[in-house]
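User: Structure please.
Assistant: Input sequence and predicted structure:
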Amino acid sequence: APSETALAHTSTMEEQDENLLKKVADSVMEVVPDAVAPPVQPKLDADFGFFFAYAMLILMAAVPIYIGSRRSVKDKDNKFKKEDIMTKKDAAMFPIIASCTLFGLYLLFKFVGKEYINLIMGAYFGVIGVLSMTAVSRPVLLWVLPARLTQQPFHVHFSQEAAPATAETAAAATATTSASTDATAPATAAADAPPADKGRVVMVDFSFDYVDVVAFLVSLVIGVVYVYTKHWLANNLFGIAFAITGIELLAVGSFQIACIMLLGLFFYDVFWVFGTDVMVTVAKSFDAPIKVLFPKDFWQQGIFANKCAMLGLGDIVIPGILIALLLRFDVTRHKTARPYFHATMVAYVLGLLATVSVMHVFNAAQPALLYLVPACVGTPALLALVRREFNQLLSYSDEQQDKEE
């Protein structure tokens, strides 16, 4: 009996001690809740880093489109060549070719190994990136370097002897000459041809100056840094140069052709992002400057941060080609105002904001063209209807404009 009483007393003491400890713990929680609660500051930093990273991506998308569009407005001596202008057939085939290329890269990464593919493609894009950066950085260097560096250009010219004419080609040339009604044409052609090129085929012919040399050397240094470090800053410099060059040189020809291409790429993007893991896998595996990057932990790690958000160059160049076309349309229709260009630029930025917002809410990859195509096609079409210029917009053609000028 005494032992049972002692055990009961001991049990009661333990219960009292346990209750006392609970009261103390509750008191501590009330007085110092942050001592055991998870800190809020890291979550706020993560959200700020996310939004800042995507704000920088949007900026790095808008600036190349603006610069590339301005550079695409050619003077009368530097128009688009007919073979460089996209046709309706080219536009219709573009999503199919892009799909085959994308799926081919996916299979290569799956079965060959991304280290070998990235080694080859990295070297290729490194060389192309150096050339693109050289062309893009020249106007910037012209503001900085002395003007005398452009006064003594170099000229590289390679030509070879033309193949000897056969009897058939000689007879055809004689017949054509004798049938000509313009007696001055042969003399004019002979006068225009450089004496050194008579009877020769020009293989290489280009000029450059000291500014080009400086631009090339700077670009080469950035290329070496990119190849050896794969740093996101070097990647972005090459990516932006690619985007500007692509928007400047690629011409869709007309608004109709642009709509055909963008509509096809709309379904291309939606299918490969939502329907498969192909797009996301290639984007994450492909270590080449075909995207712009900005780290979400930039404020914590600075330029050494590596948790990067990305935006593919296709989401910049494809809408940028249409926006550049609209700027050229503005130039032909309006003396100073650029309504279609400015309105579509704003629509593009809003489309990217919608992409980022949906991606943040659902925490899943989004096909940017799902939002960009309706914004970039619908805005100029609606504006043309309001301004009663829809027929002019549909009938505009880069090729036809070049002929008129």
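Strands lie at 154-161, 200-208, 291-295, 308-312.
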